[in-house]
Amino acid sequence: MSFENYFRLGQVFTLRLRSPVQAGEQVEEFRGVLLRREGQRLELRLAAAEGKDAAGLGEGESVELLSERFGLGLRLTGKSCGWGAPGVLCLESQEDLEIYYRRLYRRAELSLWLGLRRAEVGTAPLHDQWNEALARRAAAADPTGGTAVARYPVNLSAGGIRLGLAEPVNLQEPCLLFLMLEDTLPAVCALGEVVWLKPGETPEVRVCGLRFAGILAEDQQRIDRFVTAYCRTHQPEEGKSSG
Predict the structure, then answer these.
(1) How are beta strands 149-157 and 30-38 bridged, if at all?
(2) Do 30 and 56 touch, CB atoms closer than 8 A?
(3) How far apart are CA 215 and CA 226, in angstroms?
(4) Geometric angle at alpha carbon 159, from 17 and 18, rounded to 5°
(5) Is the pLDDT at 191 greater than 60, yes or no?
């Protein structure tokens, strides 16, 4: 299917590796802006930090591209053609564009206990703190490392979360999240990235949408199962709709 009418220069895409993800492996996504489109060939500029993390992406690797246009979800696959200018990834897309109305994951409005860390001067990068939290959890220790936990009203899915954050908040700001889904299991540890902002009920708080930029495949599945079960019990109609 031709995608010329659905992709525009400056459009933001989420890029995922299509290699099978095993239990315990990290699911990391990268965001890029479409710089050039020529036939099936695309060039995406990744943010500086993400370009560094994705630098190991080799030529010929299969990738999945996700975006939105006209209120629709877009998905297609392709292969990496290597790096052009610094931070610019070249891709050869397949003619397999999918257009869908449904969200990729079921969502739920609920109140959730969670811990939250934001980047601070003089502390390790949150990506490193996320890996340390996963290591603590694997060693049967508290993954939160003493992070304060509070109850938040959220909109949750396996792809991300909406919640209020104290100002100042910036787009692409990272956050480390510890989600308490079940009493008997350790917290889900996820690295979030702010992708949209709206005014909150007070000037001191912004409503933020975060995507899970870093999460274990098994944790993503836990969230999806948790949300599905919650919707069946508390939101039967919302659980069936795509939203």
Answers:
(1) unpaired
(2) no
(3) 16
(4) 15
(5) yes
